[in-house]
Write a structure and sequence with these properties.
It holds the Pfam family ABC_tran. The chain has 216 residues and is an alpha/beta fold. The chain contains eight helices and eight strands. 37% of the residues lie in helices and 24% in strands.
Length: 216
Amino acid sequence: MDAVHLRNLSAAYGGQQVLGPLSLQIQPGERIGLVGRSGAGKSTLLNLLYDQVRDRAALVPQEQGLVQALSVFHNVYMGRLNHYSAWYNLLNLLWPQRRELAVIEPLLERLGIGKKRRSPVAQLSGGQKQRTAVARALFQNAPMLLADEPVSALDGPLAHVVMGFMTEAYDTSVVALHDIDLALAYTTRIVGIQDGQIALDAPSHTLSPADILPLY
């Protein structure tokens, strides 16, 4: 994929500036961790970024964007709805096809929710819903991943499993994370957001948790 150049991004709600103006460049192969306290503007920045690159990005939104009445399989399959014809999508809604199961089932197994394939999303725990949203993004297999707090509901070991899987699947990503240790471990670059502005932008390997904590 080509580099992404964002210039003079800004957002306001209720007449109050909440982000920017700021500029950001994302090079192919960069894994960027967005860090900062809640309300700093990380989610707003991700949403604005997705608006500009949605044709080449898979998104894991903070609210997950799942269809509660549909099964885990169908929610994951929705990651590629635009890849297939309407009749094939309808066929998979009624009777999941072997070709799709062969790809989706291993994803779910690795994420620890293989036994939930047929379960309606409404019956899942918060962590299981998060992993379903991650599986959908992995199945989508886009050039770039955008994820907003994708492991916030997971315990330590499981969070590492999911972050490792996303890192393997996507060379280029922008992931908002509250956990500083995860951000340093699974990204190549840290972008810190404070009061709607970029307050820190540096390679992950040059930083320690003490460098990032002031943003919180």
